[in-house]
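Q: Given only this backbone (463 positions), what sequence would you predict?
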């Protein structure tokens, strides 16, 4: 009998693990959370030991089988010669590297950087974090012998192997995304020793992928067609491209996909379900109550608008200093109105990414959703109307862990390839159609939303 396939997703809030049968039936799940440390404003760090402990504990609760790994992208794990962790990992949502991003674009040249890596230097990416260490913690820098991304550190502990996949390597800014190998030219220009980097493989060969590529695979997105819409802590709109084609201004990311020989473009907002988590905490109420109260308000919540830039923003503004706001408040607005405006503001942020993907020729007719926020029916109805797309949900909500399990199946020969894995395991559960009345209201709302960021800009300089 074929053993179950195991997927382990090393997320920001915790590890989520899943065991599936070779026809995609979910046999068991396990999760384990860990803390996020913010030692200074804008900093975000985690202890790699916490990831390992959580992964070990989840695996102990699942049946045995081939393991695939996915995880939060961009995080920097530094190891010394003895493979000991040198300092806490610096995460994807850390915003300390604005100066280093400028340094990278100056050293490589912006056009050349986009040509080589498909991307511009963004604060969350891995290479700027390395430069920050060189500039601010030279003692640590001097001891580095290996670097890894978060889920690849878990692989090291699990198997002793140093490795990365092309999908996750794409988010380091040290990867030749077109050639699907490390970029010697970028490493040279930044004076980063290439021997620190782990060998890079296709996702199917190593059973690993960055969480966005894994999530897309886990909901069946292997080729141009439906877009992946993720309502996780961060929010993502993701499309497979017919060929490697970076945006000339790199307003969206272009990365290797987890399917060999394919690429994808995506826009990333930093606070999607993260905005929901924040507001729920601030309002001290449960999600069902808040959704229920928000459903009592008409689309647009009588002019109340929310800017979801609680942790700065990536797409479309690439601005670590952007901050959130509610505008248009009146005495009539209550808790439900605040919640509705938050759900809508995040949906508008996703639309910003979708509009940029459209400029690259992406013409989706349907989206597939995953992530914690996809559990909210109201949020899905709002996102569907704001994007003007039907949204499909698949059997597994944990897209990334499910995708990692599919990769384990390809690597171990249970499936012929990624398409075979999807054909045998991924099934659509339900579909939300955009409400025509809401679409009209939200087209107007989106026009207003787009004026918000420029209007808020002058406020950013305040202490
Ligand atoms: N019904 C809901 N409505 C709104 N938000 C929700 C709902 N259910 C869960 N969430 C939010 O979803 C988020 C968790 O989603 P998910 O697990 O996809 O995040 P994630 O980004 O994958 O986490 P990690 O960073 O650990 O990978 C939390 O912020 C939680 O508040
Ligand atoms: Mg996740």
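A: Predicted residues:
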């Amino acid at each position: 009998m074929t053993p179950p396939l195991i997927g382990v997703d090393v997320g920001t809030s915790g590890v989520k693990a899943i065991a599936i049968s070779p026809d995609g039936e979910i046999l068991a799940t396990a999760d384990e959370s860990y803390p996020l440390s913010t030692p200074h404003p804008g900093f975000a760090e985690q202890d790699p030991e916490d990831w390992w402990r959580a992964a070990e504990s989840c695996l102990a609760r699942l049946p045995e089988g081939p393991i695939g790994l996915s995880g939060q992208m961009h995080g920097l794990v530094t190891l010394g010669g003895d493979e000991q962790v040198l300092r806490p990992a610096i995460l994807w949502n850390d915003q300390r590297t604005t100066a280093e991003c400028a340094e990278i674009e100056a050293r490589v040249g912006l056009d050349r950087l986009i040509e080589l890596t498909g991307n511009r230097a963004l604060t969350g990416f891995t290479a700027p974090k390395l430069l920050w260490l060189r500039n601010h913690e030279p003692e640590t820098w001097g001891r580095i012998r290996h670097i890894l991304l978060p889920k690849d550190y878990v692989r090291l502990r699990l198997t002793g192997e140093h490795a990365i996949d092309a999908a996750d390597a794409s988010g380091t800014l040290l990867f030749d995304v077109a050639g699907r190998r490390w970029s010697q030219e970028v490493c040279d220009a930044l004076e980063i020793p290439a021997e620190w980097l782990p060998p890079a493989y296709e996702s199917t060969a190593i059973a690993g992928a960055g969480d966005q590529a894994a999530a897309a695979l886990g909901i069946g997105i292997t080729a141009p067609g439906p877009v992946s819409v993720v309502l996780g802590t961060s929010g993502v709109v993701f499309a497979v491209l017919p060929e490697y084609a970076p945006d000339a201004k790199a307003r969206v990311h272009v990365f290797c996909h987890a399917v060999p020989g394919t690429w994808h473009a995506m826009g990333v907002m930093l606070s999607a379900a993260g905005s929901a988590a924040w507001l729920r905490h601030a309002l001290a109420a449960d999600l069902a109550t808040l959704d229920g109260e928000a459903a009592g308000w008409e689309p647009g919540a009588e002019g109340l608008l929310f800017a979801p830039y609680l942790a700065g923003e990536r797409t479309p503004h690439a601005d670590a200093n952007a901050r959130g706001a509610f505008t248009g408040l009146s005495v009539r607005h209550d808790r439900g109105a605040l919640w509705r405006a938050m759900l809508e503001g995040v949906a508008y942020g996703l639309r910003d990414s979708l509009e940029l993907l459209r400029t690259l020729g992406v013409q989706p007719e349907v989206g597939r959703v995953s992530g914690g926020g996809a559990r909210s029916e109201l949020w899905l109805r709002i996102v569907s109307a704001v994007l003007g797309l039907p949204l499909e949900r698949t059997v597994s909500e944990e897209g990334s862990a499910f995708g990692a399990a599919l990769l384990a199946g390809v690597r171990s020969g249970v499936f012929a390839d990624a398409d075979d894995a999807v054909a045998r395991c991924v099934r659509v559960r339900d579909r939300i159609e955009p409400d025509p009345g809401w679409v009209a209201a939200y087209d107007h709302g989106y026009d207003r939303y787009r004026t918000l960021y420029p209007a808020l800009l002058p406020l950013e300089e305040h202490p």
